[in-house]
Design goal:
Layout lengths: L9 E4 L7 E4 L5 E2 L16 E4 L1 H12 L7
Parallel strand pairs: 1-4
Antiparallel strand pairs: 1-2, 2-3
The structure holds zinc ion.
């Protein structure tokens, strides 16, 4: 019996200064590595989707360390 369950997958988030984390697309919990199944909700993510989150973090850094530009 399947009732239109969401397709489970790990979303691999990479960070600039932290280890990667793997987020269950079903329950949203994050883990340091992709398990065979999610310990939180029991979903079995079949694949890992890459989410280059560090790009956003890099942009944050740009804002934080904004160089003064000549104008
Ligand atoms: Zn889960």
């Amino acid at each position: 019996m399947s009732r239109g369950s969401k397709k489970a997958q790990w979303i691999r988030k990479t960070h600039l200064f932290r280890a990667d984390e793997y987020i269950c697309s079903v329950c949203g919990r994050s883990y340091p590595k992709p398990y065979d199944f999610c310990p939180g909700c029991g979903a079995r993510p079949g694949k890992v989707k890459y989410d280059p989150h560090w790009v956003a973090e890099m942009e944050m850094m740009d804002i934080l360390f904004d160089d003064d530009e000549d104008f």
